[in-house]
Amino acid sequence: MQSLRHVVLLFLLFTIVACQILVFPALATPTPLPPSTLTASGTTTLSQTSTGTATDTPPPTLTFTPVPQVRRVLILSIDGLRPEAISLAPMPNLLNFMQTSAYTLNAQTIRPSVTLPSHASMLTGYCPSDHRVDWNDYIPERGYALGTDLFDTAHAAGLETWMVVGKRKLEQVTEPSSLTDFIYVADRDLVVTERLLSEFPENFGVLFVHFATPDGMGHQYGWLSTEQLSVVFRADEAFGQILAALDARNLRSETLIIVTADHGGHDTSHGSSMPEDMTIPWIASGPGIRPGPLTTTVHTMDTAATAAFALGLEPPSDWDGVPVVEAFGLPIEEISSQCE
Ligand SMILES: [Zn+2]
């Protein structure tokens, strides 16, 4: 009887252990260790599980993530985009893009806050007193913005430089010899984008894209009106298509993208020194960017300087704009100031 009881007890014990292994397979198979991680000092640390059996695992393989490099810059200017419109329209693609962006919704344009002088400052890096564009119409006989601009600098370095715009007067920002191509499409933002995508410049170094429709609707129906916000929503749809085109070509990881505007607006106008006219968004995402809000005041001339900095181009020493290095997580050594 005694030995039969032992056999029954042993059987029960065996059954309990077998059930535990079925329920908790980790007891039966050793847990693999997580891959090693590389610390800042260049030494490896090996995380151990609670089982602590690190002795018979092979030595960890070190993998270094290469430093991301900006090989291209895409600047999108949404004409007359007040920062408030981003959430009011809303602009889901831009809002999503901001998650990985360094940004400020309090960047400042130049005075007067009008299209051609503002874009000239955005893309030349100069204050109006230096680039001398004091007109706001297409007047070919007035020539081009003075000084060495972003396109001059990039083109001289052998990069392809493109402008795809919704207003012809932007042709006067830089000389044709500094552009691979200038494409003017007198149509809605989605049509401008359709044209851009139909002949997408796969090898661009600097690509400037300009959406004109929000400004036109602002003049017609008022800034932040329902009508303007509806075309801002369309501009965002077009922006999403451009991002998808970059993704489809695997270009996104090497492209710095800056989304900004030339001015804001109030009532059905702009051009004044009012905050509603002067305040613009400045949103940058790409390799090396540290996401989050910027503390420095960004001026529109900083766009050219940041693009040149990211591409490793030597900027002209007389530029008024400075690179927004804070966007790359670097210490702020110099900031731009409002133009006279
Ligand atoms: Zn404008």
Summary tags:
single chain; 340 residues; alpha/beta; Alkaline Phosphatase, subunit A; two-stranded antiparallel ribbon; 10 strands; 15% strand; globular; binds zinc ion
Describe it.
With 340 residues, this protein is of the alpha/beta class. It has one domain: Alkaline Phosphatase, subunit A. The protein is built from 11 helices and 10 strands. The structure holds zinc ion (ZN). Zinc ion binds next to loops.
Please describe the topology of this protein.
Layout: H1 2-23, E1 37-38, E2 44-45, E3 72-78, H2 84-88, H3 92-98, E4 102-108, H4 115-124, H5 128-131, H6 150-156, E5 160-165, E6 181-184, H7 189-198, E7 204-211, H8 213-221, H9 226-248, E8 255-260, H10 275-278, E9 279-285, E10 292-293, H11 302-311
Helix pairs in contact: 7-9, 8-9
Q: Give the termini separation.
A: 107 Å
- Alpha-beta content class: alpha/beta
Tally of helical segments:
11
Instruction: Give the bound compounds.
Output: zinc ion
Mean pLDDT: 87
What is the N-to-C succession of helices and strands?
A: HEEEHHEHHHEEHEHHEHEEH
Report the C-alpha radius of gyration, rounded. 28 Å
Order of neighbouring strands in the sheet with most strands: 6-5-7-3-8-9-4-10
Count of discrete structural domains: 1
- Give me the CATH superfamily: Alkaline Phosphatase, subunit A
In CATH terms, what is the fold-level topology? Alkaline Phosphatase, subunit A
Low-confidence stretches: 12-55
Beta-strand content bin = 15-25%
Largest sheet: 8 strands, mixed
The count of DSSP E runs of length 2 or more, i.e. the number of strands, is: 10
Write down the overall geometry.
Answer: globular
- The residue fraction in helices comes out at 25-40%
